[in-house]
Design brief:
Elements (H helix, E strand, L loop, with lengths): L2 H15 L2 H19 L8 H45 L1
Protein name: HIG1 domain family member 1A, mitochondrial
Main location: mitochondrion
Subcellular location: Mitochondrion membrane
């Protein structure tokens, strides 16, 4: 198996384990793309201020996606799994 296939399957495996990683990446690229397109009409705003706002918005989205992903993972590990284990014990 080539290195490319190993990397692709690793990404897909990680995406299935934590579905909010691709959401965070997509949101990051969407925000950066939108802000770069909006750069034409920034008016009197300095370039550095515009880039700082773009970075803060993109990082905020990624941090939000990571937080939701951690909360989802905790819910799955501490609420759903114990319920399933309890049902399995009751069925025996």
């Amino acid at each position: 198996m080539s290195t490319y296939e190993e990397n692709e399957s690793k990404f897909m495996r990680k995406a299935k384990e934590n579905p909010f990683v691709p959401v965070g990446m997509a949101g990051f690229f969407a925000i950066v793309g939108y802000r770069l397109m909006k750069m034409k009409h920034r008016g009197d705003t300095k370039m550095s201020v515009h880039l700082i706002h773009m970075r803060v918005a993109a990082q905020g989205f990624v941090v939000g996606a990571m937080t939701v992903g951690v909360l989802y993972s905790m819910y799955r590990d501490y609420v759903v799994k114990p319920r399933e284990e309890q049902k399995a014990v009751q069925q025996k």
